[in-house]
Specification:
Chain B: InterPro entries: SoxD (IPR006279), SoxD_sf (IPR038561). The complex is a heterodimer of chains A (977) and B (87). Chain A is α+β, with helices and mostly antiparallel strands and 977 residues long. In chain A, 22% of the residues lie in helices and 27% in strands. In chain A, the strands form 13 sheets. In chain A, strands 8, 9, 12, 13, 14, 15 and 28 form a seven-stranded mixed β-sheet that branches. In chain A, strand 37 (689-699) and strand 38 form a beta hairpin. Chain B has one domain: 2-Layer Sandwich (Folate-binding fold), CATH 3.30.2270.10. The longest helix of chain B is centred in the middle third of the chain and has 8 residues, at 34-41. The chains are: A alpha+beta (977), B mainly beta (87). The interface between A and B is medium-sized, with 19 and 29 residues. The complex binds zinc ion (ZN).
Chain lengths: 977, 87
């Protein structure tokens, strides 16, 4: 309920939201948890394993219980912490893990079966049989146990990622962080101050402290105003630093749009994942209060003492009408003082310590403990023992405090281990755990406000001093009360004493783990799942550790901690992968003919990042094969036009260009005459084929190399490597010109006739023999012509600057159509090259040598080249290797498949009998047969032999004849004609 | 991770392509013994500590560089262009 005169929200700013369909009013800017408590809602969720009723425990991002689902459909967000979600008009929230409703959850039957669901239950019960696991156990467990779920729909929300750089990153904007930012900001360095809350100030917003005689929250607001006015300071609210990495790099998740309705800000991203690079950093992440494990300490209404003060002082909400407090330290007593001052009844403070004084007018029970609690869906009463007896107290809210754990998490992200502090009874950061990062405030164990302010100022001053800047340390006055605490981790009594609320782990589970010899903290964690839920055990790990230490007869420092790993809070995959969904997954490279192709309804297929036309459907054609066959016919009988611009083109110039090519190609290019083209084979240094293509010599010192579409990037990187690292003696320069030239194949018996309709000066067979090249003029445009062929036909490739590509393609296709030809796509191109035995990366897939593809004689013995030495290795020249052959379906009509393996007729189709495999297949309309290329052991010696192709994946078995890979026009008369 | 490109300055590792140990710079002569080539091509010490490795500033100036860094502490000690470096 609301408490008049308390809190920093404005009663006039009312918003409406729904929780499980019920409408509630709240105040703008407050968290869902505050709004629910203001409306008297205590039951907000069911626990993971036992489906126990649970309420709000904390007031921050460490919340283990109050997880809800926001929204529906693709944008549905599960497991949102009610303690950080800011409400807005129209917000729709649902509880999780309960069916049919929160109050009547059928699955709470698990709680009755609890004796059978102890730690290690999964391992013990579901060992075997294996089939049961998949068909029975897993589906049942998945349905019964779990948190929120995704909708399964595509999420159209916008997410972002961004980078930032600064001199000093300050993590957390409580008193220490604000003081650090003021100190560094006033000194003039570039500061980023990040805080996960919507408002900066940390505990100053939630306590009744004064700073410099001023209300703490007002002091914080003034500090933020001063910082906001500094050009060198960037304030990032709703931004959690999630990880500390090498070289001063920090990950951060900014909640950008979760606090506004989508309709009000359709262009606002939901979240932004930041990578922040900081020369220095100060961790001012504060501390997290830890619960005490007493019997049935998980009822709705039992929460952290600091959370009660947050709801009261910051949000103006009292979580109960008669509040009790159970604690082992002084700090928690302030809860009673604040409540009484606000007019809320305090029914008693139970302190485990014997020697302690009340700070105000409330019943104090020393040497006390809470031994039982009652109330099914909300707390109704507690039973306590104390110095002089036992009694039951009516209470609807129990504030507990087992002390504070400094938030050491980030200091452990690079293998650092925290140090146990006997006075604080907590782990504190170990110096130097993260290079360039220092820790200040409560995170460093400075528990008073003054301590936080002082260490923040000193930490920032030391950090900027490292950067050569002097900062003035000027700290305001504030309380400096001692932090007195006595160990209390668990209370004996009947009932389960919960440690990890989110994963339903209790004290007995830890003891069972120890008893079953899972004594290492890492083993205990995995056996019990302690700390493995979405909150990563932020509030429960230290207490669990203490219980384990006790059960194994060791101290806490000897027991050690589990490893803290990033992220500190859950980070959605959508934010990390921002921009990479759908079309953002990879860039699209489009050729100049793209629109002409799609305009002809050509289906486009991906070739690396490129999109290329598969085929060009004609009216009346029902299958791609009909189109493909027609296009093959264009090239074999008339003329076809195909965009080949996607092949890599590298312009190579310099006095040593020829020597360079001799070194990177297995064959020789220095002997190539000007205006001639040669096929080139490029090896990797390990003697296997890297790539192939044609290279033209345009002048004495000028070549243009083509690569395959697939390997263009790899070849370019390789050439850079060779030129810079291995042959810096050669005077050669090169640049990729793939994007600069549009290039089209014009192939078929009528190709020259077609070209002569578009070239300014006609060409003749005498001037342009096979493998010639040179400059041509097309409509006054300077272009290049290459007489090369990938189809075995009389063919050319014509290149023009890219800006003329679209119009030249249209012109060439129109002329081809006038000559009973037309455009052809990738399917026809593939058939044409298979019929001729021309290889692609289907064949040169990385494990084949020049020898394997029948090109070993191309490897020059007269010079050194990349891959030469390794290619001479005995094992790479063994005739029994799998070598390139053609394969023809014996009856012509049985379809063969790529990927099938080859076996001797009658042999079992098992790997021991493997004779090779098929790499490329097609229906050849020219040969009226299914054909393919593949590799067969000692293939060239086995021509005419029948082998059986077995495709285990598709279940296809076909008898094939081993033949020459050149199926069509083996003597090459057509290409020269 | 950021690498100090001698030409461009400190740049994000996403701009770089990794090749491996800098001993790839010491290419044997074409007629060198098979064992020498085996070492060059295939044999690497998987060091825990300071290593020299090859990176290509593919998304930047195109320089191949030798980076000296520590695989234990992840400290990057420096980088130089391959033309000036020797394995
Ligand atoms: Zn560079």
């Amino acid at each position: 309920m609301r408490v008049a005169g308390k809190g920093h929200t404005d009663a006039a700013e009312t918003v409406h939201f729904t929780f499980d369909g019920q409408s509630y009013a709240g105040r703008k800017g407050e968290t869902l948890a505050a709004a629910l408590l203001a409306n008297g809602v205590k039951l907000v969720g069911r626990s993971f394993k036992y489906h126990r009723p649970r309420g709000i425990v904390t007031a921050g991002s460490e919340e283990p219980n109050a997880l809800v689902t926001v929204g529906t459909g693709g944008g549905q967000d599960p497991n949102v912490r009610a303690t950080t979600l800011e409400i807005y008009d129209g917000l729709e929230v649902r509880s999780q893990n309960a069916w049919p409703s929160l109050k009547y959850d059928m699955m709470s039957v698990n709680d009755l079966a609890a004796p059978f669901l102890s730690a290690g239950f999964y391992y013990k019960t579901f060992m075997w049989p294996k089939a049961f696991w998949e068909s029975l156990y897993e589906p049942v467990i998945r349905k019964a146990a779990g948190l929120g779920a995704l909708s399964g729909d595509i999420n159209d929300d916008i997410y972002e990622k961004a980078f930032a750089h600064c001199d000093l990153l300050i993590i957390g904007a409580g008193p220490a962080g604000l003081m650090a930012a003021l100190t560094a900001g006033r000194a003039g360095v570039d500061v980023i101050l990040a805080d996960e809350d919507s408002q900066m100030g940390g505990r100053l917003l939630a306590e009744t402290f004064t700073v410099d005689g001023q209300d703490g929250a007002d002091w914080a607001a003034d500090a933020v105003s001063e910082l906001a006015a500094m050009d060198n300071v960037r304030l990032m609210t709703r931004t959690t630093i999630t990880g500390a990495y090498d070289q001063g790099t920090y990950g951060a998740i900014e909640q950008v749009g979760h606090h506004v309705a989508r309709a009000d800000a359709p262009d606002l991203p939901r979240e932004c994942f930041w990578r922040i690079v900081a020369k220095r950093a100060v961790l001012c992440a504060g501390a997290l209060e830890r619960p005490i494990a007493f019997p049935n300490n998980d009822r709705p209404g039992i929460m952290m003492a600091s959370a009660v003060r947050s709801y009261l002082n910051r949000w103006g909400v009292a979580p109960g009408k008669a509040v009790t407090i159970f604690a082992n330290n002084d700090d928690a007593h302030r809860t009673a003082v604040d409540l009484i001052a606000a007019g809320v009844k305090v029914a008693g403070v139970i302190d485990v310590r014997a020697d302690v004084q009340a700070m105000g007018d409330y019943p104090l029970y020393t040497s006390g403990a809470v031994t039982a609690t009652k109330g099914r869906l909300a707390l109704e009463s507690i039973t306590i023992t104390h110095a002089v007896g036992t009694r039951e107290i009516r209470t609807d809210c129990l504030a507990m405090s087992g002390g504070w754990n400094p938030t050491v998490h980030l200091t452990c992200h690079m293998n650092g281990r925290p140090t146990w502090d006997e006075t604080l009874l907590s782990f504190v950061p170990t110096d130097g755990s993260i290079p360039g990062l220092t820790v200040a405030g409560a995170a460093a164990g400075h528990m008073s406000t003054l301590g936080a302010l002082q260490s923040g100022a000193k930490g920032a001053a030391a950090a900027v001093a490292d950067l050569g800047v002097t900062a003035k340390v000027d700290v305001p006055t504030a309380e400096d009360d001692p932090y007195r605490i006595e160990a209390c981790w668990q209370v004996d009594g009947k009932g389960r004493k919960w440690l990890d609320f989110q994963n339903d782990v209790h004290v007995k589970d830890i003891k069972l783990a120890a008893q079953e010899n899972f004594r290492s903290v890492e083993h205990m964690k995995r056996y019990t799942t302690q700390g493995m839920a979405t909150d990563q055990g932020k509030s429960s790990n230290v207490a669990a550790l203490a219980v384990l230490a006790d059960a194994t007869g060791r101290g806490i420092p000897e027991t050690g901690t589990t490893t803290f790993r990033p992220p500190y809070v859950p980070v959605s995959i959508a934010a990390m992968g921002a921009g990479s969904q759908g079309h953002g997954f990879a860039p699209k490279r489009l050729t100049t003919s793209h629109h002409a192709s799609t305009g002809r309804s050509a289906p486009m297929i991906e070739a690396g990042l490129w999109y290329r036309p598969s085929y060009f459907p004609a009216p009346g054609e029902k299958t791609w094969l009909e189109s493909c066959n027609r296009e093959v016919g264009y090239v074999r009988d008339a003329v076809g036009v195909c965009d080949v611009s996607t092949l890599g083109k590298i312009d190579i110039q310099g006095p040593d260009a020829a020597a360079f090519l001799d070194f990177v190609y297995a064959n020789t290019f220095s002997t190539l005459r000007e205006n001639r083209v040669r096929y080139g084979l490029m090896l990797r240094e390990d003697g296997h084929v890297m790539d192939d293509g044609t290279t033209a010599r345009l002048g004495a010192d000028h070549y243009v190399m083509t690569t395959t579409t697939a390997a263009a990037g790899q070849v370019m990187t390789h050439l850079e490597w060779v030129a810079q690292a291995l042959r810096p003696d050669l005077d050669v320069r090169f640049a990729s010109v793939t994007e600069q030239w549009a290039q089209f194949a014009v192939a078929g018996p009528r190709s020259r006739a077609l070209l002569n309709t578009v070239l300014d000066d006609p060409i003749t067979g005498e001037d342009w023999p096979f493998m010639s090249c040179g400059a041509v003029s097309i409509g006054g445009i300077e272009g290049r012509l290459f007489r090369i062929s990938f189809s075995g036909e009389h063919a050319y490739e014509i290149a023009v600057p890219s800006r003329y590509g679209a119009s030249l393609f249209r012109l060439l296709v129109a002329q081809a159509e006038a000559m009973e030809g037309g455009a052809y796509g990738m399917e026809a191109l593939n058939v044409l090259r298979i019929e001729k035995g021309f290889i692609t990366h289907a064949e040169i897939h990385g494990r084949v040598t020049a020898f394997d593809i029948g090109m070993d004689r191309m490897v020059s013995r007269k010079k050194d080249c990349i891959g030469f030495a390794a290619s001479r290795r005995e094992g790479l020249l063994d005739g029994q290797r799998e070598r390139l052959v053609g394969l023809r379906s014996v009856n012509g009509t049985d379809k063969i498949t790529a990927g099938a393996h080859l076996f001797v007729e009658g042999a079992d189709a098992v790997s021991d009998n493997d004779q090779g495999y098929i790499t490329s297949v097609c229906w050849s309309p020219t040969l009226d047969s299914h054909i393919g290329l593949g590799f067969v052991k000692d293939g060239p010696s086995r021509l005419g032999e029948h082998v059986v192709a077995v495709d285990h994946v598709r279940g296809v078995t076909v008898t094939c004849e081993v033949c020459s890979p050149v199926f069509f026009d083996p003597d090459g008369g057509r290409v020269r004609g | 991770m950021r690498l100090p490109c001698p030409i461009c300055g400190e740049r994000d590792r996403r701009e770089f392509y990794y090749k491996g140990d800098a001993l790839a710079l010491d290419r044997p002569a074409g007629d060198a013994d098979g064992g020498v080539w085996d070492d060059y091509l295939h044999n690497r010490d998987n060091l825990a500590g300071v290593v020299r490795e090859l990176w290509h500033h593919a998304g930047g100036c195109g320089a191949w560089i030798v980076v000296t860094r520590d695989t234990v502490t992840h400290e990057v000690h420096g980088a130089e262009r391959v033309g000036k470096a020797k394995a």
